Amino acid sequence: MARIVDGARMNLIGDKVRQYRQERNMSQQALSNKLELLGVYVCRGSISRIEEHLRTVTDVELCAIATVLKVDITALLESPLPFAD
């Protein structure tokens, strides 16, 4: 059985991260900087890859991103599951 992350999309939150970040007029670099203040190191390039679904996201990163964007974690996960039919 193939792992879920073997597909084209490496995460479920990329679109929502971009949406909430842009709604807050926050650059990818600003998001990266705010995550670093929480002790979670995600470079600007990794933010870009998350938004493009090209990078996985750890649970710690998920919590920190939700905190910085001031949204509940479930708001980031509100997208169709690519593997559910």
Write the layout of secondary structure elements.
Blueprint: H1 14-23, H2 28-37, H3 44-51, H4 59-69, H5 73-76
Helix pairs in contact: 2-3
| End-to-end gap | 17 Å
Say what oligomer this is. single chain
Query: What does the main sheet amount to?
Result: none
Instruction: List the helices and strands in order.
Output: HHHHH
CATH topology: 434 Repressor (Amino-terminal Domain)
* Rg over alpha carbons: 13 Å
CATH architecture: Orthogonal Bundle
Runs in which pLDDT lies below 50 for 5 or more consecutive residues are none
Number of structural units classed as domains: 1
Mean pLDDT comes to 90
Count of DSSP H/I helices: 5
Key words describing this protein structure:
single chain, 85 residues, mainly alpha, 434 Repressor (Amino-terminal Domain), 5 helices, 51% helix
Please give a structural write-up.
The chain has 85 residues and is mainly α. The chain has a single domain (4-76), classed as 434 Repressor (Amino-terminal Domain). It has helices at 14-23, 28-37, 44-51, 59-69, 73-76. The radius of gyration is 13 Å and the shape is globular. The model has no long low-confidence stretch (mean pLDDT 90).
